[in-house]
Design goal:
With about 190 residues, the protein is an alpha/beta fold. The protein is built from seven helices and seven strands. It binds S-adenosylmethionine.
């Protein structure tokens, strides 16, 4: 219990520090809550061999929920732009593929892995898409579509809870959408399939 509390406090401190440096890109003042992590992790692929691509994992609150739900660390590829957060994640998840890089280059980054990955069973995104221009969001979602398995899921949360369609998702079918009130601020998790 004490260990969990210390870990949560450390994550909050790390996150707040990075938010102060770059609020626009960090997108939030606090890490995702356990409830939000669990709501994202429900959508893991059934096949345990499938890779899962996480975008903008931050301090790893959602990552932790994915692992807790049964994702093998070595099946997780996470792309985090902030080098300090990527370093923090590597310590926390030593067997995962943590890439310090830009999610918009996901195709190249997946191809540059020691064993290139061409498709994934789910894309779990915490990226603050609303802080990016619409065209840029669309460019990213296009790349997500290209890398997803035919039955793969794209899971995205946003803080605009009144709207269930997230930026750039028009070419996807929305299969679920849920508001998570126990998060600061409350968030909406939307789930898409091709
Ligand atoms: C809202 S925060 C994620 C919070 C995370 N769920 C947590 O609990 O710590 C968004 C994250 O996206 C990252 N990010 C922003 N732009 C990015 C980009 N172009 N590529 C990869 N990561 C990016 C930020 O550095 C930040 O860690």
């Amino acid at each position: 219990m004490a260990k969990k509390l210390i870990a949560a406090l450390t994550d909050s401190t790390v996150f707040l520090r990075e938010w102060m440096v770059n609020p626009q890109r960090t997108g939030s003042v606090a890490p995702s809550s356990p409830k939000l992590g669990a709501a994202m992790a429900r959508w893991l692929p059934r096949d345990p061999e499938s890779f899962v691509l996480e975008l903008g994992p931050g301090t790893g609150a959602v990552t932790g929920a994915l692992i807790k739900r049964g994702l093998r660390e070595d099946r997780l590829i996470a792309i985090e732009h902030n080098a300090n957060l990527a370093k923090h994640l590597r310590k926390r998840f030593p067997r995962a593929h943590i890439i310090a890089g830009d999610a918009w280059e996901l195709d190249r980054l997946l191809n540059d892995l020691p064993e290139p990955v061409t498709s994934v069973g789910a894309v779990i995104s915490s990226l603050p898409l609303l802080n990016f221009p619409k065209e840029k969001a669309e460019e990213l979602v296009e790349k997500i579509r290209a890398v997803l398995d035919p039955r793969g899921r794209y899971v995205q949360y946003t803080y605009r809870i009144g709207k269930d369609r997230t930026r750039g998702s028009t070419d996807f079918r929305m299969i679920a959408s849920q508001i998570v009130w126990l998060n600061f601020p409350p968030a909406r998790v939307s789930v898409f399939q091709k």
